[in-house]
Each structure stands twice: as structure tokens, then as C-alpha cells.
Design brief:
By secondary structure, the chain is of the alpha+beta class. The protein has 3 domains: about 1-30, no CATH class; about 40-105, no CATH class; about 110-209, Immunoglobulins (Immunoglobulin-like). The chain is about 20% helix and about 40% strand. The chain is built from 4 helices and 13 strands. It has helices spanning about 40-60, 60-70, 80-90, 135-140, and strands at about 1-5, 10-15, 20-25, 25-30, 90, 100, 115-125, 125-130, 145-150, 160-165, 170-175, 180-190, 200-209. The strands form 4 sheets. It has a 4-stranded antiparallel beta sheet with strand order 1-2-3-4, with no helix packed on it. A 4-stranded antiparallel beta sheet has the order 10-9-12-13, with no helix packed on it. A 3-stranded antiparallel beta sheet has the order 7-8-11, with no helix packed on it. Helix 1 packs across helix 3 (about 80-90).
Length: about 210
């Protein structure tokens, strides 16, 4: 839309392909260019691809990140903190084949310990997730409870669940609310006061049926 204050004094705005504005006291009217010559540099295109890859990975977990990531700087959000971490640490490949390395990505971050190892297998009633506790972690954090996270490899849907299962249990069966197919699984732990998290731990990719 163009705003015309006075037919002889010009105006401002856009009307179709015409742009009206004032510069250095002069009224200017010009057509918008069909294309722009300032094409993005390879470095800019690579950075855009990096950001796109991280955002596509994090988008299914917007609600989760509010609970599992803490912003470290004033004015920063949990989402931007997660985005910044994964941009720095979880990307692999070269432009244009940049992708998130899920084994390095974090969907939770905090000081609580992660298990020494973990595995997931498909069972008739869902995914059986098992983990091996470090003895010191198990004794110092017996009341931590399990958080399970899954991402569908085919369509990018995500699911998560804050369980009541304690770290000491060592196993948990879960049926994610996701379409059948290949899913990536992470686990994390939250303390009893619900004030601290562990880093998330990628378990593995498994076929869910």
C-alpha cells in the first residue's frame, strides 16, 4: 500500500510494482527489481542450512525444551539455548549435506549424571529401555526419575514422557505415540525437586512396530 500525502509532495509505500519514498528531500518513485543481485555467499548459505537442520530437529520438542533446558543468559530462552548448543556441537557434514548427529545432540541439559550405558529393544508391548547405572551416581541420586524421548525418523514427529520410574529400576517399557517405523530414542533424568536435569543420552535407533 502506498500513502499519498499530496500529489505533488510525493508519498511513501508500495503500489503494485511501484515503490514510493523520500530520500534527501526528494520524492522518489521506482519499480521493484524482478530479482536481486546480492546472492548469498557460500558461507551464508551453509549457515542457513545449519540453522535449518537444527530447527527441524528441535521443532517437535518445543514443549519439552522449556522443561529440560535452562537459559544461561538474561533474555535468552530455553529454545535458543538448545539451538545454540546443538549448532555448536551436534552438526555433521558439509553444505549442502548438513545434518544433526543425533548421538551428539542434546534434548536435555543439566548437571545430573547420565547412565554408564543404555540400550533399547522392541518388545510386544513397546520399547524396552534398559540402562546401567554408575554405582556412585545410583547411590547419590537414588530419587532421580526417568525421562524418555523419541523421534520418528520418517516424518519428524516427536514424543516424550516424564515417568515416575527411578534411576535404580534400570529398565522401563514405553510405547511412544508415534507412527510405526524407525525411531531414535533418548533418555534423561530429573531430580525429585524437578529443578535439575541430566544431559539427554541418545540410546539408539530402533524399529518400532
Amino acid at each position: 500500500m502506498a500513502i499519498i500525502d499530496n500529489l505533488f509532495d510525493g508519498g511513501r509505500g508500495r503500489l503494485g510494482k511501484m515503490v514510493v519514498y523520500k530520500m534527501n528531500g526528494m520524492n522518489i518513485m521506482r519499480t521493484k527489481p524482478e530479482s536481486y543481485s546480492d546472492q548469498k555467499s557460500p558461507a551464508q548459505m551453509a549457515q542457513r542450512k545449519r540453522l535449518q537442520a537444527v530447527n527441524e530437529f528441535l521443532n517437535p520438542f518445543s514443549r519439552l525444551l522449556k522443561l529440560t533446558f535452562k537459559a544461561e543468559k538474561p533474555g535468552q530462552t530455553a529454545r535458543s539455548e538448545a539451538q545454540s548448543y546443538n549448532m555448536r556441537n551436534a552438526l555433521a557434514g558439509e553444505h549442502p549435506h548438513i545434518h544433526v548427529d543425533k548421538s551428539k545432540a542434546l534434548l536435555s541439559r543439566g548437571p545430573l549424571p547420565v547412565p554408564a550405558s543404555a540400550a533399547v529393544t522392541q518388545q510386544p508391548d513397546g520399547l524396552l529401555i534398559e540402562w546401567e547405572n554408575d554405582p556412585e551416581a545410583a547411590s547419590r541420586h537414588p530419587h532421580d526419575t526417568l525421562v524418555v524421548i523419541a523421534l520418528s525418523a520418517e516424518n519428524g514427529y516427536g514424543d516424550f514422557h516424564f515417568t515416575e520410574t527411578r534411576r535404580s529400576a534400570g529398565r522401563y517399557t514405553w510405547k511412544p505415540a508415534l507412527p510405526d517405523g524407525t525411531v531414535d530414542v533418548w533418555i534423561a533424568f530429573r531430580n525429585r525437586e524437578q529443578t535439575e536435569m541430566s544431559d539427554s543420552m541418545w540410546v539408539e535407533e530402533v524399529e518400532e512396530v
